[in-house]
Amino acid sequence: MSNTHDPDGVRLQKVLARAGVASRRAAEDLIAQGRVQVDGETVREQGRRIDPDTAVVHVDGARITLRDDQVYLALNKPFGLHSTMSDDMGRPCIGDLLADRVEIMNTAQRLFHVGRLDAETEGLLLLTNDGELGHRLMHPSYEVPKTYLAEIEGKIARDLGRRLRDGIELEDGIARVDAFKLVDAVPGRATVQLILHEGRKHIVRRMLSEVGHPVLRLVRTHVGSVALGNQRPGKLRPLDRVEVGSLYKAVGL
């Protein structure tokens, strides 16, 4: 949404309509109701012009993506795929999935993965070229929760959730989950859900192994409020406006 040919800026309601927030008429109503902020200031006048390349716009407290060169993708990373854009050893990696997506590579020369999943872990991995958002999502100080489903060995003790919430001593310090739930159990194995905001290497596998439950399968299902849903392994999808807004909000942007 370049502003190159309009030195005076673009009308705010037109910017909102282009961003898919609402029709131009409905966007005018949002402005009149005081539900739109530009650079932290509530805007009520209809003639306001902004530069979409530099302005920060929020609607109902959620940031709106204005630049059409920014890419936000969700990947369901399959088992065995490495969380790198290229691999010197020739192992299968994320970059292989993107190589055939010309429309992505043409608009996202600096596309990178937000955090990583080890090769044996499946599930939701976010890809973007929005450096500020990606940095904050990875930084532990913003405490963005990640949700995992783990299939584990062994009989589940009644106090397992409490122990994981209280903290498990690992070689690089204590690790805790924010929430724990037993999803399913059969003799000798169980499926559990864990939510945590830490990103240390192999953190989920190490915690569960330390309490006597080796992980048989591990899937990340959520990053913040963005969900994997029924997305098939190896498939990419663009995040919608609400999902991108929720990530911005989670990290205070």
Structural overview:
Strands 7, 8, 9, 10, 13, 14, 15, 16 and 17 form a nine-stranded mixed sheet that branches. The protein has a four-stranded antiparallel sheet with strand order 3-2-5-6. By secondary structure, the protein is an alpha+beta fold. The protein is elongated and about 65 Å long. The protein has helices at 12-18, 24-32, 94-98, 102-107, 131-138, 160-166, 203-210, 241-250, and strands spanning 10-11, 36-38, 41-42, 49-50, 57-59, 62-63, 72-77, 112-114, 122-128, 146-153, 168-170, 173-175, 179-186, 189-196, 215-223, 226-227, 236-238. Helix content is 24%, strand content 29%. Helix 1 packs across helix 2 (24-32). It is built from eight helices and 17 strands. The relative contact order is 0.16. The two termini are 20 Å apart. Residues 1-5 have low confidence and may be disordered. The longest helix has 10 residues, at 241-250.
Topology:
Layout: E1 10-11, H1 12-18, H2 24-32, E2 36-38, E3 41-42, E4 49-50, E5 57-59, E6 62-63, E7 72-77, H3 94-98, H4 102-107, E8 112-114, E9 122-128, H5 131-138, E10 146-153, H6 160-166, E11 168-170, E12 173-175, E13 179-186, E14 189-196, H7 203-210, E15 215-223, E16 226-227, E17 236-238, H8 241-250
Parallel strand pairs: 9-15
Antiparallel strand pairs: 1-4, 2-3, 2-5, 5-6, 7-9, 7-17, 8-9, 10-14, 10-15, 11-12, 13-14, 15-16
Helix pairs in contact: 1-2
